[in-house]
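Protocol step 6 of 9: fold each sequence in the batch and record its structure tokens directly after the sequence line. For illustration, a two-sequence batch is reproduced in full.

Sequence one:
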Amino acid sequence: MRGSPPSDPDSDRMWSLSTFRLTDPTGRLLGTCQTYADITDGYRAERRLELLTNAGAGIGATLDVARTAQELADVLVPALGDVAWVALSEAVLEGDEPSKMSGPGRWNLRRIGVAPPGEGWPTGLPAAGAVPPALPNHPLLQRIGQGQTVLLPDLDSVVAAAEGHSELAHLFVPEHGHSVIAAPLFARGLVLGTVVVWRTRRPAPFGQEDADLLTEIASRAALGVDNARRYTREHRAAVALQQRLLPAATTDTPAAETVGCYVPAGGGAEIGGDWYDVIALPSFRVALVAGDVTGHGLPATATMGRLRTAVDTLADLELDPDELLTHLDDLVQQLQDEAPHQGDTVGASCLYAVYDPVTCQCTLASAGHPPPVVVRPDGTVEAVEMSPGPLLGVGGMPVETTTFDLEPGSTIAVYTKGVIYRDDHDPDAGLWRLTDCLARFAGPGRGLDGVGHELLRSLGDAPARDDMALLLARTRAIAPANTATWEFPADPSAVAAARQAAAGQLAAWGLDEVSFTTELVVSELVTNAVRYAGGPIGLRLIRENVLVCEVHDPSNTQPRLRRARWSDEGGRGLFLIAQLTTRWGSRYARSGKTIWTEQSLVADLGVPGLLP
């Protein structure tokens, strides 16, 4: 028990009190005897062991640098001292290593963890913020920089250490502080920061045993801080890589206005392989993509980058959504073969949707991905009914397409499973939450700026265990007055008729300056269709920010651009088209193909070398 013997006023010592009965041989009570035994050393040894045990269990349980620092301060107060703080290098807070070349005067420390918190913290002593480079050449600070613990056992030594720097005393010396220990957080040859413990209320000063105890605790805590720092660095690198691999957050095309957002996983989970994409396709169409790679960490992010690049390439070929996902499935199987030891982590889901602002129709296909949600102009919200195929990498199963009307002003949301899979692991409940939030935040008349992050925050406060990627697209339509369509038979006379029709429409649109070039393009494309494909032949002009010319024929033969020799009588048509237009290409349909071209709506200056 603790007590003070009658002759010893030192109440900081620990005493064991024993009481004995004094009796004579007959058993008659003569009196009592009390003895005191000094058990201070044993008691303190037991308390030190308990403090070490608590430090081992309570420090470094998370991979958060600031929280680890606070855990260290909480362990030390009141078990060892009355006031404690932990200051870390700003480089450590960013996940970097403090420079070995930096001396104590250039540590750039920041006070992170303090105890006691709140009102118990000494008045006038800064509880947070940057620590000024005090006493940069002081011997005590030099010792800390070398990894040694500094003990100032009494007020005289504290005053002597601060001599000549009284203006900084209020930053480092708490009120009534009379004894202090400062230990470095030393790990792998680097000083990550310092931990300082003061005694202000209890009268007993710190001793060497206390300094040794703090040194051991600080060395264990330094490993926790360093582990958290390394995780912060890796997590930051993965997030930076993920964000660099994602497209621009906002796009604005004739087909749709889009806003995308990505939120990395929280709660200690590694970064994942979620992505979204917006791909501008010819004829003013737009592709909306969302995908989710299995697993976490840099391998998943790298796989995501390869898949997104593949989707961009396949989209440029203008494949149907189901055919595109079939080719993407082949790529994932190839990735599995390249890394058999990671075969269980190489997999993905993907949704690929194409919206056409001319027909106001959306065609999509899904490989194991959740359905998109549509907010109609009248405010109704619904998940698109579709039949998703298997995950990418499974192979052997077909992928079905779904086509539905999408009115101008509708908002379509494509997302990854982290958006709807929350703590309850109920996708149906998550989908209901998403539709409810979309109705509130992305309804008609509400802008999309900032809606994505606001919507994700409204889904739940707890950090998600999986990444969340969300893409919102507000659809638009090409006005019917900006399109013109004709159909011609496979007859040589159709060439002149097509040129005349195109010229008349351009005159009606006030685009006479591009009439000459467009007539040449129409003439070449229709001539090739009559000669090699047969009829019927479709011609369509679309005017928006550029002029699109499309010629459709029933043949599935892919046109090839080549450079004709000087003796060849043909083979120059596509070469001329490539020179006359901004870009050109072809795409297949259920029956036949469509060759398209794009022209900038500027004055037609002709083609140098073709005409005088």
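Sequence two, same batch, same settings:
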Amino acid sequence: MTTLRIASLRTALLLTVLTIASLIGLGPAMAAGPPVGLGEVPVHTAPNAYGPGIWHHAKQGKTWYGSYRTFPDTSAYCIDAGKKSPLPKYFKNAKADTVTSARTAWALHEYAGSTSKDVQAALSAMARLDKALPHDHKVPPQKPADLGKKFAAAAKKHSTILAEAKKLAGPYTLDISLEPVMRMPVLEPYAAPESTTSPDSWASDKTDKPKVLGTPTDEATLTVSLLSASGAQVPDVPVTLKTTGTAKAPTTVTTGKEPVTTTLQASAPGTLSVTASAKVAPQTVRVFEPTSGTRVQRVITPDTPDSVTDKASLELSSQPKVTTEISDQTPTPGETVTDEFTVSGLIGDHTVTVEHTLWQTATAPRQGIKNDDAREIGSVTSKNVGNGTHTSDEITVPEDFRGWLYFTETIAGDKATKEWKGIHGQPRETGFAPWTPTADTEAVLEGTSTHDEVAVTGLRPGSEAVLTITAYHVETEPAQSKKPDGTELSVQDFTVNADENGRVEIDTEPIDMPVGWVTYVTAIEGSDVNKAWTSDWGVPAETVHRPPEEKPSTPPEEPSTPPEEPSTPPAPPEQPENPEVPERPEEPDTPPVEPVAETPETPASPAAPAPSGELPRTGTTGNGMLIGLGIVLVGLGSTILLISGSRRETD
């Protein structure tokens, strides 16, 4: 009796322990669970049939909030709470039907592989509560938030996943677009229609159309966005790209919370196209009916991902741009110049033909405007030119050229190329050959003053020039040289305007001429059109000389011999027609003394010539009369002597 009583007590104790364990919800390995009519019964012999999850004890029975390993490659979730666990043996050769339920499908697609029991409990609750799915619940489904403290973490996951599903679930729209990359306008334009008055007016669109800044290049911007049913951007989805007409294009991009952009480079003019595709969360779930057993739960699994695609294309043509620089900005007439030019904007290995024209003007060129006096000097062609820097063939500058010259470039347009026409007057394309004036001068000496007469030629017609004429004094005759010497006597500046032939003539103000040599130096100041020029120092034509005056130290001596008689002696005085014969004087008592002729005075020096401008005197002069009277007296004395002698002989 005692033994039987002890055995009965042990049996009762064992049954009590099993009952308590079943009531507190121990796992399938610990408790056999309630009877079939009281909820899902954990299976002790198939512990691997359950994934992560949490058991819940409801009034109607026990139920599993979590995933099942009904299928070896994916998680399964029951949609009939309280029925038998969906063991693999009940679903051999099972066929799936699909049911559209975008939010649940998104949640299973994103989180079915999680190892968190809270995440799996949240997914299980979504499957049971989804009204789009068929159900045969034996235990009422509940939100994790209503299942007590044990489901607190699962409740948070449930709330988060549900909110994400509302935002990010499909159906999805993959949107891609291609836009040309524009070259922004530059400060110094290179191309513009010749009819425009402003070099940058071509960049402005005065219509109501949106303004497009710059010109297209060989690049395009690809924009990729993946939108959910709510219109939100779906991030972290790889997008596969297939492109044509591109070089080194990416094969994939990953979506983000904002549209994603990448740059594609065209390989040649023509069509650039992109096809994009992405795998996204499905909008459906797969529903499986058991193929054996009774009262077995139906389950759902994630469906295979959906695909979304989109295409975009863009027609691209080469948009050439030419920047140039003339080979010599101070070209020498008679020599050659070339166009150093850089081409950009051609797509890939595309090549073009560039026409170079060299222009000349006598007036300063204005950027972007063709001057009225612009004339073509010549042109050359550069064929098969690609992107990069090149040099044109040579063009000869005319021998007599003076003024400005510059290049313009032209690229003809076609289907693959946009036309390019360079503008006139680009500073880096422009060269200038200045006018080269010279001066012919002549120094003039007048008495004790001197001045310089200057004739300037070779100035730009109508231009203004500044002349500086400097006079230097030296004691010895100067030898021509580039370097001036001596003492500056005067510096005179003149501002003149050339005539239509580029000529100017001036006379300097007279200056006092010292003894010695004075030489002039003429300088023409350089300007923006005329080259500077300076004459040599000591040029003979620009030099004058004043010798010192002769001043004797003693008075002049009397001449040792009388001056020669004039070649034509003065005419004697006229004799009267009937001269009176003097009466014979009476003879003195004593014989008279024979008179002796007096020594005649030295005749006076001949008179100085009449001053310049006066007429010579004519008629009898005082000296002539004295000479004539002397001759008469000598003749009279001789006659008297002859008479006296005759009488003496008679006696």
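Proceed to step 7 once all outputs are recorded. Observation for sequence two: The chain has five helices and 33 strands.
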